[in-house]
Amino acid sequence: MGSPANDLGVICGMPQVVSYQIADSIDVRGLRTAYKEGIYHYDADELFYKTGEGCFVYVFKYGVVCFLGYSVEEASAFMERIVPFCRNVFEQRLSEEFDVETNAQENKFGYNKIEITKPDVEVLRLIMLNVSQSVALDYFSEQTNALQEETNSNTLNLERKGRLTISGVNLKRYIGKTLNLKNRIAENLYIFDSPPETWEDENLNRIDQGLKKTFDLQDRYRDIREGLEIVRENLELFKDLLQYRNSTFLEWIIIILVALEVVNLLIDKLFKV
After folding, report:
1. Which end of the chain is more exposed for a tag (fewer CB within 10 A), N or C?
2. Could you tell me the residue ranges of all domains in the chain?
């Protein structure tokens, strides 16, 4: 990226992975076109830079940037540089830290830490991938909880007042928001799919499975999907109730119009007599 290590004065070798959810999405393709130097791996969804000895940056299209070997100040400077490639940049960023110890006698998983036998680039990339998916799950979980709170509020109104206070337009927005969130999760997170690099490397596969358990990725993913499904079912029920209310309202309008017509006919007949 130009030369991030030199431009930002990166102090390499810090044994900590830090991942940030900085935006709704990042234009990975545009970023790759603008900053080509240091690219180690890329595809349509992600961009992985090696910016120095022991220094890496991992950028994901779902709005996450992950650092290894960067100080907080250096990471902040880097993220400021890629803001033009971000959509809906967040003022408050979710983050997650994970310690990496190298030259261990064996690969070992601990609380918020992993010990690895050697700092192989593919191993480090795999660690950064899992930390990034963890912070992305935190973000999607927050979005799901917000939708559940909105839904619960309308459910309580239905229980207390016997009617919905939400308008049809707002209900459609909530349904759209729920479906969009489900689609984004399905498109961007591959919690159940291990990266292709792990398929032929037994060591990488073991590390990948261990990291998934450490971050509890699969259970958290299921919780979000189930929460969104409950929200969707409630909103579909609300939609049916609104449609029934609207159809009943239309029926009353028709009845009133028919009654007025009958009254007019009676008045006409009386005056003719």
Report:
1. C
2. 4-240
